[in-house]
Amino acid sequence: MKRIIELDIEDLAYNGQAIGYDNGKVTFVKGGLPGERVRAKITKIKKKHNQAKVLEVLIKSPERIDAVCGHYEVCGGCIWQDLGYERQLFYKRNQIESCLKHIGGFDEVVIDDIHPSPEKFFYRNKMEFSFHTCAPQYSTRGFLLGLHERGRFDKIFDISDCRLQSEMSNRLVIFLREEIERLSIPVYNLIEHHGFLRFVIFREGKNTGQSLLVLVSGAGDFVGKEELVASLQKEFPILTTAVWTVNDTITNIAKGEIREVLFGPGYIEEEVMDLRFRISPGSFFQTNSRQAENLYRRAIELAGLSKNDTLLDLYCGAGAIGICAAGAAGSVVGIDIEEEAIEAAIINAQINNLDNIRFFAGPARKVLSADPLKDMKFDVVINDPPRAGMHPKALKRLIEIDAERLVYISCNPATFARDAAELRLAGYSLGRVTPFDMFPHTMHIELVAHFEKKG
Ligand SMILES: C[S@@+](CC[C@H](N)C(=O)[O-])C[C@H]1O[C@@H](n2cnc3c(N)ncnc32)[C@H](O)[C@@H]1O
Q1: DSSP string computed for 84-131
Q2: Which is the most buried residue in 32, 269, 349, 364, by most CB within 10 A?
Q3: What is the DSSP letter of 447?
Q4: 39 three-state secondary structure
Q5: Residue 38 within a domain
Q6: pLDDT, tens digit (0-9, with 9 covering 90-100), for 205-254
Q7: How many distinct structural domains can be found in the chain?
Q8: Which atom of ligand 1 approaches the CA of 364 most closely?
Q9: Separation of alpha carbons 418 and 226, rounded Å
Q10: How far is CA 30 from the centre of its chain?
Q11: Residue with CA nearest ligand 1 atom 16
Q12: Which residue segment(s) compose the domain that 318 sits in?
């Protein structure tokens, strides 16, 4: 029997849920804020903690505000929109402190104030919207185009007023829904895996004004394609380019092989630190362009580069950090596991006329252990691993490189704290940690930290 309980919310956890104690047992609660008393239903009982969902807020926190987005109650996107922005920043910084203390065993690290995002809304340069066929009670059109309902991989709701990307992105989604219905273009069912149109990806160069629409379909002919493209160009003359890609696997990921560039060059450019970066349908680029620039500036400042230094940009993606740092360094080497990202990085280096940067595709540990890099000396490393942090063998290899300075960028304070503890054991001392808010209203946190070799 799932119990109904009353409890006081005391904190926010890294997973974005609230924390309370039910008869002393840690309970992660969906929907509450610190300082609130709530009535909640236990949804999962585990050995060390329970999970619960708020049914009613009995005593409201003064930190609670009205969410501005009309989709807030149902959407899985901005789960902290009902918490004042200053308080979001406070809890994010606290989580870094708590991870460093409890996971890493660091008691006295200096954690700077978190840098707020330059934009609180409409800050994303990329959004992915999903199609899903549905019964008439959900939409008389017979399909939906929007985002996932909170916690549901199998439920989509129609978006019309999302605050994450731009007004244009909302208008595009509304327009596509109407046009696809008018032209009777078949839509995919993401549970039964049949149908045609699967995803819409919209990417914008926030600093260049360019925009890219990607229509991702399953296998088959694109019936109605010409009419759709003509009406798109008429309605959105500002749209720079559009591409059709195909994902005919059953994995529900918004990525596919390019089938056709529908119009324009098939990619856009974004500007960061006065440099140009090409963004194609599938290439990685930090989603909050303006805050990415602040993050990169800080990382490069901490790297303390001179023209005598060889810099390793580890987990380089499409090369953005290494390219931004190349002017200050003697030479730069970038490594990323994704071939496509490395191809983009090479193009990006060319666009910016850089001849002191080289890129290698492959797993970090392997590339660093093979020719031509295995005996190379690096003075500085900027390390930006994925959320899981560094693989223990990659971390061991990084330690063997024995760079004087190491700048660690992380989007997960828990794995950062774990890796930082290993670096300390290897003789690195952790300097300041600077948090950046890349994703307002979500629980995501980004940080940059500086390590120096002792002695
Ligand atoms: C947080 S992103 C880095 C972003 C990049 N520094 C930037 O600012 O644009 C992490 C990158 O790690 C790469 N990656 C994941 N596992 C890897 C591995 N084992 N070896 C090398 N790169 C890996 C991913 O392809 C991804 O581009």
Answers
A1: -HHHHHHHHHHHHHHHHHHTT--SS--BPPPBPPS-SSS--SEEEEEE
A2: 32
A3: E
A4: strand
A5: yes
A6: 999 999 999 999 999 999 999 999 999 999 999 999 999 999 999 999 99
A7: 3
A8: 20
A9: 53
A10: 22
A11: 337
A12: 91-118+288-453
pLDDT in the model for residue 29: 94
Atom of ligand 1 nearest to the CA of 286: 9
Same domain, 163 and 241: yes
* Tokens 């919209």 sit on residue: 202
Distance 368 CA to ligand 1 centre (A): 14
Mutation test of ligand 1: which of 315, 342, 357 has the most ligand atoms closer than 8 Å to its C-beta?
Answer: 315
Which pLDDT value is given to residue 1? Answer: 59
**Calpha distance 7→36 (Å, rounded):** 8
Mean pLDDT of the chain: 95
Tell me how far the alpha carbon of residue 344 lies from the centroid of ligand 1, in angstroms.
Answer: 13
The CA 336 to ligand 1 mean position distance, Å, reads 5
10 Å CB burial of residue 452 (0-12, 13-18, 19+) is middle
**Residues of the chain scoring pLDDT < 50:** none
Nearest CA to ligand 1 atom 11: 315
CA 423/CA 398 separation, integer angstroms: 9
To test ligand 1's pocket by mutation, which of 126, 278, 284 has the most ligand atoms within 8 angstroms of CB? 284
In the reported structure, the alpha carbon of residue 395 is separated from the centroid of ligand 1 by a whole-number distance in angstroms of 14
- Ligand 1 binding pocket (C-beta < 6 A) is 284, 286, 315-318, 320-321, 335-338, 341, 363-364, 384-386
Candidate of 291, 297, 337, 395 to mutate for ligand 1, largest count of ligand atoms within 8 Å of Cβ: 337
411 given a catalytic annotation: yes
Count the residues in the chain: 455
Task: Indicate if 113 and 151 belong to the same structural domain.
Answer: no
SS (HEC) of 295-349: HHHHHHHHHCCCCCCEEEEECCCCCHHHHHHCCCCCEEEEEECCHHHHHHHHHHH
Residue nearest to atom 1 of ligand 1 (CA): 386
Phi, psi of 273 (to 5 degrees): 50, 40
The answer on 397 and 307 residing in a single domain is yes
Output the pTM of the full model.
0.92
Q: Are residues 361 and 247 in the same domain?
A: no
Q: Are strands 197-204 and 156-158 parallel, antiparallel or unpaired?
A: unpaired
Atom 27, ligand 1: which residue's CA is nearest? 317
